[in-house]
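Bug #77: duplicate submission created two jobs. Keeping one. Sequence:
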Amino acid sequence: MTSPPELKTLFQNFLHHKNTTDNLDSLGPWLQRQVTAYSFPDANQIPFRSAAYTRNRVAQENSGHDQGFEALIMRWDEQVQTSIHGHPEFSFYYVISGCFNMDLFAHASTGRLRLTESKRFVPGEAMWFLGQAGQYDNFIHRVTCLETGHTFHIYSEDARKGLAFGGSIEYSCNFTPK
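Kept job's structure:
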């Protein structure tokens, strides 16, 4: 079986919205309004690696290329923490299940990063960011999974291109539910 049809439909609708608007700032709010109307796969169908987070691609704008938008479901084990990292121009996060803490960072005048905010996210909450095209240090953050869970993401490019400010625990695969 291929990726969940409803998520592919959401992704195709998102691409249509993106291609018909001149206001890229509208992408995050549009996704937040739409995402709650779609069903997500049963957690037991999502591939998982313990003591890590697992990236599962569900759709891609330019299949087989690392350019263009992509949609992911991530499955997180409790207490897993990402490195401090950035992303390409657009990033969207939606919590399906679990509880997560996100630390947000900014460049300080000293050339170092400084913690600017910590936010807790629970099911149904979303966050998005629109940064500068061609840069991979947009939206610098670190995620800690406080309770095993799942998140849905859309990025403007392969998120692994993001600049990391330390080591990363990550496992990549394509999502094919049973």
